[in-house]
Design a protein that fits this description.
Elements: H1 2-11, H2 21-49, H3 51-57, H4 59-63, H5 65-84, H6 86-96, H7 100-105, H8 110-134, H9 147-156, H10 160-174, H11 180-206
Length: 209
């Protein structure tokens, strides 16, 4: 996972600032799995001793919820980036207009390999950008916003980064010039719509509606 994390950072994947960032991302899957048990224990305790007493009991854990949220988001982005990573090679070959046999034959050509590396980095950057947007974050630094503009957006919008990420995702869907990035966005939203339709249809059939 550390190698994937290194590639993700090189490609510009948004990793939230948390204490000991690398270790947090690496262990976030354990945190996510443990969150279900935490919620079950919390609700069970509320039913037994009441909300106030259980709240005091879990006070420290509740204070750590922002960190849990950041870690979970980091892990989701990293796994989405990893899932799409094999496609970067295919996209690089497509950009260079070559096949696997031609790629194997150019291994000793430093100029062509440099072109391949650049195409790979562009493809990984597109994947990282998509993974960030799909999980609701963007790098605000890339927009070059002034502190005053950031403060204005924060005061007017509940989650300005999330809003920007979803607007950017829609833009990628509609922009057919974006090629690979648009392809990733259209696939993600298409699968989301399909999954939602199947789930809703299943609920309707199960309830006799």
């Amino acid at each position: 996972e550390r190698e994937v994390l290194s590639l993700a950072r090189q490609a510009g994947l948004v990793i939230e600032d948390v204490a000991e960032q690398t270790d947090a991302v690496m262990s976030a899957n354990k945190v996510v799995r443990g969150s279900t048990g935490f919620i079950n224990n919390l609700t069970e305790g509320i039913s037994k001793v009441g909300f106030e007493a259980q709240g005091r009991r879990f006070g420290l854990s509740l204070q750590n919820m922002p960190v849990l949220f950041q870690q979970s988001g980091n892990y989701a982005r990293l796994m989405l980036f990893k899932a799409h990573l094999p496609r970067a090679h295919k996209q690089a070959l497509k950009k260079l207009n070559i096949n696997e046999a031609e790629f194997a034959g150019m291994q000793t050509d430093p100029v062509r390999m440099q072109q391949y590396q650049e195409a790979m980095l562009r493809a990984m950057s597109d994947i990282a950008d998509h993974a960030s947007k799909a999980t609701g974050v963007v790098s605000m630094a890339q927009y070059g916003l002034s502190p005053a503009r950031k403060a204005t957006e924060t005061s007017l919008l509940f989650a300005p980064r999330f809003v920007r990420s979803q607007m950017s995702l829609v833009r990628d869907i509609l922009d057919y010039r974006s090629d690979f990035k648009g392809e990733l966005a259209r696939e993600a939203v298409g699968k989301l719509i399909a999954a939602g339709t199947i789930f809703y249809t299943g609920i309707c059939l199960a309830t006799g509606q």
